[in-house]
Amino acid sequence: MMNLDNEQKPFRWGIMGCGRIAVKFFTALSHTGEGLVVAAASKSMHRANRLQRKTGIETIYSSYEAMLDSDELDAVYIANTHNAHADSALLCLERGIPVLIEKPITQNAKQTERIIAAARANNTFAMEAMWTRFNPAVIKLQDVLAAGTIGEVRSLEAEFCVRMNPLNPKMRPWNRMCSPRLAGGALLDLGVYPIVFARMVFGQAPASISSSADMAWTGVDKSSQYTFEYSNGARAQMQTSFVKERPRIMVITGTTGSIHMTGFHGSDRFIIRRDGRPEEVVQCDPSGFEHEIREVHRCLKAGLTESPSMPLAETLETMQTLDAIRAQWGMKYPGE
Ligand SMILES: NC(=O)c1ccc[n+]([C@@H]2O[C@H](COP(=O)([O-])OP(=O)(O)OC[C@H]3O[C@@H](n4cnc5c(N)ncnc54)[C@H](OP(=O)(O)O)[C@@H]3O)[C@@H](O)[C@H]2O)c1
Questions:
Q1: How many Cα neighbours within 13 Å face the side chain of 142?
Q2: What is the pLDDT of residues 270-320, one digit of tens each?
Q3: Which of 84, 231, 234, 319 minimizes the number of CB atoms within 10 Å of its CB?
Q4: To which H or E segment does residue 141 belong?
Q5: Distance 17 CA to ligand 1 centre (A)
Q6: Is residue 44 within 6 Å of ligand 1 at its C-beta?
Q7: Does 255 share its domain with 171?
């Protein structure tokens, strides 16, 4: 059921990349009641057909350009592999079509700079689909930190480790998770979440970074750890992996208390602990892609070319941090 202002027509979305996450986006968009996916494009007609069978999307294309030239779209969701995000986004931005680009926005900071330049040159909206930033629990968490509930924040610890069965198709060397050609690896796929979280909590880039990685034979990291030190002496410690399982816990410690969030990148609650007080459970509305999608609609209606909640300058800073970490390991993707 559409739930729009009288004069607002439903937003017409296209999808580039007909894989797993495209289905999740399709469902979330329909839940917003504010728009619908009218077209999807893939490099493979087989994948486009499969997505159409699963979702009933009206029109499918076997070329991204064909979709952009044929369908009148209000926005495009870019849901292909990390190496392809930049070129796909540029195709849209050069035609003045707004983009929501899956995480990480690109494979390196140089590509992000090209996206930002194209968005500005064409006065067109662009945002990284960092959905966690729009989840109600994360919005509430920011309010709690800003109110000084746990005092001055001194440290953050976060782990995002998911053990994938070695026989899982995602572990095949040509799969996006493991392939250098597709800009795979735990850092870009999973590490970006705690790193974006740390940037949000500390409000600045780290002053220094130390990191290490266990490399897969394909040449990407299968597990990696990062420690960030900030100019005020605070510190963030993070680890990610797709070969070992650990509780997906985040703990933020301040001078007068701490905040604990389990399953942090998609959680709808967190716990506040303070000395001498009972533990406080903060329960929020469910998380999901709906919140980031509504933010895109809100920005488009307001004529904004970027989201004040997930600004492009911050996204670029995150990509620079990912580049700096990879440089410490000498991990390059083809063409870099
Ligand atoms: N926000 C989240 O929670 C979340 C979760 C999972 C993934 N993601 C992100 O979403 C994006 C897509 O992830 P996914 O899980 O949907 O990936 P996927 O199902 O493996 O593939 C998505 C699309 O990427 C292209 N692709 C995949 N493998 C390829 C290959 N070997 N060679 C060339 N192209 C290939 C295809 O695009 P075409 O159809 O155009 O050919 C495919 O349809 C990534 O950026 C990922 O980091 C986000």
A1: 15
A2: 999 998 899 999 999 999 999 999 999 999 999 999 999 999 999 999 999
A3: 231
A4: helix 136-146
A5: 7
A6: yes
A7: yes
Name the percent of the chain lying above pLDDT 70. Answer: 98
Domain boundary among the residues 96, 131, 166 is at 131
Q: Please report the pLDDT score of residue 225 as a whole number.
A: 98
Cα separation, 309 vs 256, in Å, equals 27
**Same domain (yes/no): 177, 127:** no
How many C-beta neighbours within 10 Å does residue 307 have? 23
48: domain CATH number is 3.40.50.720
DSSP code per residue over 148-217: TTT-SEEEEEEEEE----TTSGGGSTTSTTT-TTTT-SHIIIIIHHHHHHHHHHHSS--SEEEEEEEEPT
The CA 272 to ligand 1 mean position distance, Å, reads 36
pLDDT at 1: 39
Q: Do residues 323 and 188 touch, judged by C-beta distance below 8 A?
A: no
Average pLDDT along the chain: 95
> Do 237 and 274 have their domain in common?
yes
103 in active site: yes
- Structural domain ending residue among the three candidates 131, 153, 181: 131
Instruction: Answer whether 304 contacts ligand 1 (Cβ < 6 A).
Output: no
> For the segment 61-81, what is each residue's pLDDT rounded down to a tens digit?
999 999 999 888 999 999 999
pLDDT tens readout for residues 231-260: 999 999 999 999 999 999 999 999 999 999
**What pTM was computed for the model?**
0.96
